[in-house]
Amino acid sequence: MVLAALGILLVAIAILMIVTPSLGQQGVTVAGGSFSMSQIMVAFVTGVTTGGLSCLAVQGGLLASSLAHQIEQDYLQNPPQGKKTKASVQPKRSNSALPILLFLTSKMVMYTLLGALFGWAGSFLTFSPVTRAVLMIAIAIFMLGNGLRMLNVHPIFRYFAIEPPKFITRYIRRTAKNGTELFTPLFLGALTVFIPCGVTQAMLATALGTGSALAGAALLFAFTLGTSPVFFIVAYLTTELGARLEKFFMRFVAAVVLVLGLVTLNGALNLLGSPLSFENLTRGLIPSTGNSSALAESAPSSSTGGITLQVRSDGYFPQMLKAPAGQKVTLSLVTNQTYSCARDFVIPDLDYYQLLPETGTVTVDIPAQPAGTKMFFTCSMGMYTGQIIFE
Amino acid sequence: MVKKTYSVPDMHCSNCSMRLESIEDDLPGIREINASYHKQQMIVEFDEAKVSEEQILAAVKKKGYQAIPA
């Protein structure tokens, strides 16, 4: 009963995180890196939707092995009587809840630590928005390559999959066979770090991109937490996913990984100030009333040549600013209880990068620009964007 | 002791190689199995006096794969 309650608790945490939209607006900036709660949410939802089954496909065998001992014990303690062989063993499977929970807890702790390690390692790489963009492009290529691998597009993409060294897989397998008591699931759960599934690898790559140990840990914790309910339920019911279902499911996972890859690539393009990013290509095409009214509000005051941008937790307003060409312009960045990564303000063309205060005003002097210039700005994650048009 | 190479075209992730390698614990007479997802193949080193090729192929099939002698 207690174990079932724990399982329900995991699901409850999952639902709570999904239905609390205000969390999505919060964000944290830590030790040079930044991440937003929405990114954590994405990690969590990815865990719930694809990570659980994808990880189960890779690590399910280990879990099954760690359960083998428990099932054997149940069998010895309650030997089947008469003809009811299967039926009499089946209800005793409830005892397997504890090993599954131990396995998942151990896995969650290890991946959180691994996330912290990746985030920490990433902190040495994130020197500038450009470095970050380059890293994001590498991550995107890794994700897209893995997505295409899962779809079996070309044999070359198989090299995007990381094969753990033989001595590690052999050691894991032997431990699973010979292990005893509750230590086995704990130990095997910890060993799953050596055989991460494709989606987990993508998450680790994202953790690297955050450039912060705390962000990396939070990201992987959210992801592993997300995978846990699915892992628990499926493992509890079957302990192994059928090969046919696994192959079908791979396509779904591939699609999600491809989308994550494209989103990451798009973020990198934003960070480079490229006009080819999705937002920069479509901003002019979709006229919205919100934008146009905001545009009017921020019309430059000709006397000062100053323009104002509201930096809010949910992005930059207006997204399109107009500024006079051929003269110096002062851009005022106004924050008011802004907590998301929108605070990490970047103008790629000017090589300008500034962490804005949570509340306050920061001014940027923009040198005179020729008419027709489009200057893009973005947050350091390439999530929130906008542009200044000089005319 | 002989060493034979098989192509396993339906391996779809690195875990498949781990699954195939676990056959070395199941069948006595197999010294070592080296499966590679990248190459879509497995190399089996076994003692023909203790285990037959048919038994190996059957074990592979039981795991959900098809091994074709290369």
Helix content of chain B: 25-40%
Low-pLDDT stretches of chain A are 1-34, 80-94, 289-302
Number of domains of chain B: 1
Oligomer: heterodimer
Structural class of chain B: alpha+beta
Tell me what the structure shows:
- The complex is a heterodimer of chains A (391) and B (70).
- Chain A has two domains: 2-20 and 30-79 and 89-271, no CATH class; 288-390, Immunoglobulin-like.
- Chain A contains twelve helices and eleven strands.
- Chain A has helices at 2-19, 37-77, 85-89, 97-123, 129-150, 166-178, 183-191, 198-210, 213-237, 243-271, 278-282, 289-297, and strands spanning 27-30, 33-36, 306-312, 315-317, 320-323, 329-335, 344-347, 352-355, 360-366, 374-379, 385-390.
- In chain A, the strands form three sheets. Chain A has a five-stranded mixed beta sheet. In chain A, strands 4-3-6-9 form a four-stranded mixed beta sheet.
- In chain A, helix 2 crosses helix 8 and helix 8 (198-210) runs antiparallel to helix 9 (213-237).
- The longest helix of chain A is centred in the first third of the chain and has 41 residues, at 37-77.
- The N and C termini of chain A lie far apart (69 Å).
- Chain B has 70 residues and is α+β, with helices and mostly antiparallel strands.
- Chain B has a single domain (2-69), classed as 2-Layer Sandwich (Alpha-Beta Plaits).
- Chain B has three helices and four strands.
- In chain B, strand 2 and strand 3 (41-46) form a beta hairpin.
- The longest helix of chain B is centred in the C-terminal third of the chain and has 10 residues, at 53-62.
- The radius of gyration of chain B is 11 Å and the shape is globular.
- The model of chain B has no long low-confidence stretch (mean pLDDT 90).
- At the A-B interface, helix 2, helix 6 and helix 10 of A face helix 1 of B.
